[in-house]
């Protein structure tokens, strides 16, 4: 698949995941990807500075060179197009707006709340939206690192959005209001975001997403899969944990297998709806080289109230 191909190509099954697994396991030069490094709390030294590397990243790339709209998104997750009026979406880790923009283009019924740990990223998102769509009144952004902080209370229900005195902790004098704080968004998109969170923080981060979803709401997930070509490019010294790496700019990257994803989300209370590897073969025509991309695609539902 060449860069700039049609959106429909992005979700095709070009090969079986086991094919690349066998290639990796039989290549001695890639053996460091198969072993857990002999390090103690290797990622802990990076945990306290997750936001700063991304802040620096978006400051360096303010020109928008790295912006690429995710055109495949609405085909992979048609729920975002078919939704009814007054639908609310929380995009976690919006980056430069590559997810937000196709969603805003695709549906006029949806209100998008987008957050990122980097305030610079939110500036880039607003610039890209204004450049592509001009004025929109169904987009709102805020800064939040969901791996260390709770989402704001106003996101949880309609009443909280208009009443700063409503608290989920039960501090409000009117307890009947707190009974309605059961989650306020219909969808959460978590696309290439969880992999940038330190591994030990992932369970907490997922529980935060669970907390702000309405009962019956969906979390839409896509992230780097085990043995994706991006993983295989990391040198041994960049490995800070099992399947966890640090880039030269300080940002983190984790590569998921299906079992790990299933366990993370079901342990947080979600019901698995869809979960599979998305395997796409890209071709570098200039180098005459095949590149095997592997992403994990998933949909998880918050149970309805009984």
From TrEMBL:
GO terms for biological process: methylation. Pfam families: Methyltransf_23 (PF13489). GO terms for molecular function: RNA methyltransferase activity; S-adenosylmethionine-dependent methyltransferase activity. Its EC number is 2.1.1.-. Keywords: Methyltransferase, Transferase. It is an enzyme of class 2 (transferase). It comes from the Eukaryota. Belongs to the methyltransferase superfamily. METL family. S-adenosyl-L-methionine-dependent methyltransferase. This is tRNA N(3)-methylcytidine methyltransferase.
């Amino acid at each position: 698949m060449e860069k700039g191909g049609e959106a429909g190509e992005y979700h095709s099954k070009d090969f079986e995941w086991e094919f690349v697994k066998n290639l990796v396991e039989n290549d001695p030069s890639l053996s460091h990807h198969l072993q857990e490094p002999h390090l103690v709390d290797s990622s802990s030294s990076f945990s306290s500075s997750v936001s700063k590397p991304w802040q620096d990243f978006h400051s360096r790339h303010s020109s928008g060179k790295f912006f690429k709209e995710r055109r495949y998104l609405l085909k992979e997750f048609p729920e975002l197009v078919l939704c009814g009026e007054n639908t609310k979406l929380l995009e976690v880790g919006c980056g430069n707006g590559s997810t937000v923009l196709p969603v805003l283009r695709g549906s006029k019924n949806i209100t998008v709340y987008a957050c990122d740990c980097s305030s610079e990223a939110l500036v880039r998102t607003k610039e890209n939206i204004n450049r592509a769509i001009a004025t929109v009144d169904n987009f709102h952004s805020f800064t939040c690192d969901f791996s260390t902080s709770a989402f704001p209370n106003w996101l949880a229900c309609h009443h909280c959005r208009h009443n700063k005195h409503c608290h989920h902790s039960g501090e409000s004098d009117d307890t009947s209001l707190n009974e309605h704080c059961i989650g306020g968004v219909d969808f959460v998109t978590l696309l290439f975001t969880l992999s940038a969170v330190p591994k030990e923080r992932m369970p907490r981060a997922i529980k935060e997403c669970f907390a702000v979803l309405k009962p019956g709401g969906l979390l839409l997930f896509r992230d780097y899969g085990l043995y994706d070509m991006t993983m295989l490019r990391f040198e041994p010294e960049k490995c800070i944990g099992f399947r966890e790496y640090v880039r030269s700019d300080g940002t983190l990257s984790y590569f998921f297998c299906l079992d790990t994803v299933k366990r993370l989300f079901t342990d947080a209370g979600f019901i698995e709806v869809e979960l599979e590897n998305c395997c796409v073969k890209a071709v570098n025509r200039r180098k005459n080289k095949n590149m095997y991309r592997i992403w994990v695609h998933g949909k998880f539902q918050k149970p309805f109230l009984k």
